[in-house]
């Protein structure tokens, strides 16, 4: 049997804390004037997928036509505590 990871605990007998990562793609950073030695972006403020998840169009922006990799990636970590009380885990049952 392999190693298993346990959810993070706030304290030795505190609530179980789970973390989720939410990824959003913000403004487009593609330099459209790079070939002539300049700098110009198109003004696209946020990535919007052109197609359904799992298709190649899901990686193309509907607003500016650029690939998702040109958009600034923003990762937000959200922590959520379990609703169980800490007394349930600290007192052995008989």
Question: How would you concisely characterize the structure shown here?
Answer:
Its main location: cytoplasm. The protein has one helix at residues 87-90, and strands at 8-9, 16-28, 71-81. It has 94 residues and is mostly beta strands.
Structure characterization notes:
By secondary structure, this protein is mainly beta. 4% of the residues lie in helices and 28% in strands. The protein has one helix and three strands; from the N terminus they run βββα. The chain has a three-stranded antiparallel β-sheet, with no helix packed on it. A hairpin with a 6-residue loop joins strand 1 (8-9) and strand 2. It is elongated and about 60 Å long. It starts with 7 loop residues before the first strand and ends with a helix. Residues 1-6 have low confidence and may be disordered. It is found in: Cytoplasm. This is ZF-HD protein dimerization region containing protein. Residues 25-74 form the ZF-HD dimerization-type domain. One of its GO terms (molecular function) is transcription cis-regulatory region binding. It comes from Musa troglodytarum.
Gross morphology: elongated
| Overall pLDDT metric | 80
What is the overall number of helices? 1
Strand content: 25-35%
Strand line-up of the largest beta sheet: 1-2-3
Give start-end ranges of low-pLDDT stretches.
1-6
């Amino acid at each position: 049997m392999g190693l298993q990871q346990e959810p993070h605990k706030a304290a030795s007998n505190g609530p179980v804390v789970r973390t989720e990562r939410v990824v959003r793609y913000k403004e487009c950073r593609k330099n459209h004037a790079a070939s002539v030695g300049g700098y110009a972006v198109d003004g696209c403020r946020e990535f919007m997928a052109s197609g359904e998840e799992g298709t190649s169009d899901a990686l193309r922006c509907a607003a500016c036509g650029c690939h998702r990799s040109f958009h600034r990636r923003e990762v937000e970590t959200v922590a959520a505590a379990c609703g169980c009380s800490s007394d349930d885990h600290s007192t052995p049952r008989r």
